[in-house]
Amino acid sequence: MTDSPQFTLAQTRQAIVPVLVPMPAARPYSYAVPEDMDVRPGSIVQVPLGPRQVSGVVWDGETDSVDPAKLRPVTQVFDCPPISPDMRRFIDWVADYTLSPPGMVARMVLRVPAAFDPEPPTQGLRLADRRPERMTAARARVIELAQDGLSWTRSGLARAAGVSAGVVDGLVKHDVLETVLIPPQPVVAVPDPEYYRPDLSAEQRAAADRLVASVGGAASSVCLLDGVTGSGKTEVYFEAVAEAIAQGRQVLIMLPEIALTAAFLERFEQRFGCRPAQWHSDVAPRMREKVWRQTATGDVRVVAGARSSLFLPFAELGLIVVDEEHDLAYKQEDRVFYNARDMAVVRGHLGGFPVVLASATPSVESRVNADAGKYRRIHLPERFGGAALPELGLIDLRRAAPARGGFLSPVLLEDIGKTVERGEQALLFLNRRGYAPLTLCRVCGHRFECPDCSAWLVEHRFRGQLQCHHCGYSERVPEACPECGTLDHLVACGPGVERIAEEVDRHFPDARTIVLSSDMMGGVTRLRLELEAIAQGEADIVVGTQLVAKGHNFPMMTLVGIVDADLGLGSGDPRAAERTFQLLSQVTGRAGRTGRHSRGLLQTYQPMHPVMQAIISGDPEAFYAREIEERERAGLPPFGRLAALIVSANDRLTSETHARGLRQAAPRTRDITVLGPAEAPMALIRGRHRFRLLVHGNRQADIQAFVRTMIEKGPKQRGSVRVQVDIDPQSFM
Ligand code: ADP
Ligand code: ZN
Description:
alpha/beta, binds adenosine-5'-diphosphate, GIY-YIG endonuclease
């Protein structure tokens, strides 16, 4: 076949194409293109790979000059808009930056293979000309409804007419109703930028104007929208969203906990007349297919999504908003390690459109970029409508200690009592799920640990279980100690939210107390209902983990108590102070959002700690100035660069040996140093023994090239060894 005339013809077109397949492939594979097939860079195709058929994207660039006859042909081109050139650049960029195989980044785009084919039309029913020989009341109701001439679904028609589906089937059988095909429907309506224009304050207007001006310009830009909680950041960036929609561009709004922010979707609807399409792990598979497809075709104009929405195949993306840009949820630590906030900035740069980063407590990285003029900073220092920020105070636990066996200071308890008496709500925040973080035997001192992780088992009293929060291992709480056999001598150490709720119940038996945490039974749906109930005032005291910190609006919430403000400080994480500052500011910012006088009280053993002082001083600038100075002195991000290598294996020695080998392979340069290997703080996870190396370079250092060399020159990965590269690590566990 090689010298057939068709082949020569095909070769002048392009007989061979590179195809990037969604696997850990370092580069695209070459495939022959059959004569009658029309493919171009970006086309989504099906190709044979070993014994299987996989989908992939036709890539750019040259292929090795091989004889097409020796290559396997592309099986099929899907009827799907091609992946855009800037999305392809983006995939390459992310792969290069994160040191991941491009195929694995492409895999994040090609998540939903069922969406590569057009949605099939659904079957509908419409009234035909015939009428039944025998008319019944039920049949008459159906016919009357169907007289509207529209097409109905079988079950929709039956339900609307209040008859069984059998009645409808009978009418189909007698040709009274005929089957028609209904084309696929858009998952959401097109948002109307003019639907409801709010009256912005002068300050908000000025901020919005600056954002709007950046939309549709030729160049990309990054704006840091930095405003206190309740200043109206959402209202302000909605103006930029409206502008992008008006200019015919698509918009992506990223949120850290999209599954839970029903309030956000409602606000979007009030502003634009319909909801945005949603993209997160709780979206049902069929819906995901539709959203993916319609994002590619351009039918969906606005997506609100979690970090993975950054990899949707937008056709005409023109704006990305990253709300709560400082949030840790943007960091993915699985397969491809990336920070969606940083990658969004890159996406905007490659696509030539603006990116808005919004936060009340921006990351130090973003603040430094803004101060250096790389980002534009738009500052909203006041709450909308003159609402006061909560008055903040510290409770020194050394002086106002909780009663024996309790965790709440009498000072805090008194304030909770007064709040409830006034008919307002109190929130107690503790970032610990379950009842107690540690259980031990009072007689022999045995501690309950996970068999597969270096972690204590957390008691969940409500479920009667001890659980590992790292791998999900669980066992029933035993009656006797497994070590010494003594009965009934297990003690719970330290508080979790369940235990705080118990303490609250003891003090306020008549108050309605709700516990909110991510492991609640009933999952997201139940949580959403609970959050709504709280907003409606159906609880007096809420005890919650960081779920409640994020973006919810509780109008009656006037007291926020932080059970353990010190938690998270001194964890060895270079961002510990920043994290604590952000989390505590965010939680206390829940209070008083509707103008009532409100308070935030932080229980601490370290009242003089700079973080505590910064929070209560109401002067975040001082905190940032100090934190930025310390980072600069230590050469930590963004003044220096970090990369982590996490080595794991089924046994400790193999893991350590491999980690040492990597270290030895490190090139010698002046501007990059390697720390470790050291056993990871979480030395064991799911039975895998972990060692960490930390690569620290100055700001200009090519840390990627350095790590690449370590891996290439280092020992071959054999057996159970796995090496994960984490550029710009957020976690040091
Ligand atoms: P942030 O995101 O900065 O915390 P929001 O955008 O959530 O602030 O606004 C806080 C509250 O103030 C919301 O309930 C919002 O509806 C209201 N609000 C803000 N700006 C306006 C405005 N211009 N007109 C009416 N309500 C506003
Ligand atoms: Zn475990």
